[in-house]
Design a protein that fits this description.
By secondary structure, the chain is mainly alpha-helical. The chain contains 17 helices and no strands. The chain has helices at residues 5-9, 13-49, 54-68, 70-76, 85-95, 97-107, 112-118, 120-135, 141-164, 175-193, 197-219, 222-225, 229-258, 260-265, 269-282, 288-305, 307-323. The longest helix has 37 residues, at 13-49. The two termini are 24 Å apart.
Length: 324
């Protein structure tokens, strides 16, 4: 008996359940990651304006996770078998120390709300474009609408800055969208490696730490000791534990469960979170147009990432199970 198109298009129950579970886990991981990103933007912006030594910040971000993940990367090796060297180089350069240096310098020129738009706000768009060009991935109507809403939300969030004519002041601001492009390349390169999230994070942090150590030695200890102890501890937590460890592993989980472009779509939430976090930390109160941008961006991410589709499938599965 020949299956109908509807039958071939609908996966069996176990596959639907596995897909729904992947969507749930990937969505949860991505939400944790973008929350950390919003915190990281504000924290790194504060560090840049407070003249905390960049080399030490990079060492916190990569050195601490490298130590924590030592059992993982020692077992796999810093050059895991079967992974092309060019892919290892891409994930290290595009999410490791070179990426961090580029973005940290750029954050010294842009306020937190603007940085959220220029950096993570454009990551999902870069990733979607690269995925379309490289993997020829097809986007359904919901994802196209979601990407369009994400763009509109980012524009709303950026509107006060654009109206003030400050966007192009200082070439340093241009470093942030360049950093977003690097992260999008990392997203696709990591997907191609097939590495588990812990192994990928360990490899990136190992090589990044080696890159950073010479700059730490050249900087010396005195610039760090001259900073308030509380500020240094906060950076250890933000850079080393949250951003360097939890977010890097969490993003790997999101990419492996959702795919590269769907995982990167969540990055559009970071501008909204950065703008909100900047209220208590930096005293920046977003205007009504930014709040509208937050709402639009949330809806756009939900559509473009497939989160709403996953919820709908779980709901239908539950109704189907109740009816049988």
């Amino acid at each position: 008996m020949t299956a109908t198109p509807a039958e071939t298009a609908t996966p069996p129950g176990p596959q639907r359940s596995a897909a729904a579970r992947d969507t749930l886990i990937g969505t949860a991981a991505a939400l944790v990651v973008v929350t950390i990103w919003g915190t990281w933007i504000v924290g790194t912006r504060f560090a840049a304006t407070a003249e905390l030594p960049l080399a030490w910040l990079a060492l916190f971000r990569y050195g601490i996770p490298a130590l924590v993940l030592a059992p993982v990367w020692l077992r796999s090796g810093p050059l895991p078998m079967g992974v092309p060297l060019r892919l290892i180089a891409l994930i290290v350069v595009c999410s490791g120390a070179p990426f961090f240096a580029l973005v940290a310098v750029g954050l010294g020129f842009a306020p937190a709300a603007e940085a959220g738009v220029l950096l993570p706000g454009t990551m999902g768009l870069w990733a979607a474009l690269l995925t379309k060009l490289i993997y020829k991935e097809r986007f359904g109507g919901a994802r196209v609408l979601g990407i369009a809403l994400s763009v509109a939300g980012v524009v709303f969030i950026a509107m006060p800055t654009l109206a003030g004519g400050h966007l192009m002041e200082g070439a340093g601001r241009l470093l942030l969208p360049c950093g977003a492009f690097l992260w999008a390349v990392y997203t696709l390169a990591y997907r191609a490696t097939g590495l588990p999230p812990l192994v990928g994070a360990g490899v990136i942090c190992f090589w990044s730490t080696l890159m950073v150590i010479p700059f730490v030695v050249a900087t010396g200890l005195e610039p760090l000791l001259s900073q308030p102890t509380g500020a240094v501890i906060a950076q250890v937590v933000i850079q080393g534990l949250l951003s360097g460890l939890v977010s890097l592993v969490g993003y790997g989980v999101a990419v492996s469960r959702l795919g590269s472009s769907r995982a990167a779509a969540f990055s559009s939430l970071a501008p909204a979170l950065a703008a909100l976090f900047a209220i208590p930390v930096l005293g920046e109160i977003p205007p009504a147009v930014v709040i509208a941008g937050v709402a639009i961006t949330v809806l756009g991410v939900a559509l473009s990432s497939g989160a709403l589709r996953g919820i709908g499938r779980r709901g239908r599965a539950g109704r189907d199970g109740a009816a049988t």
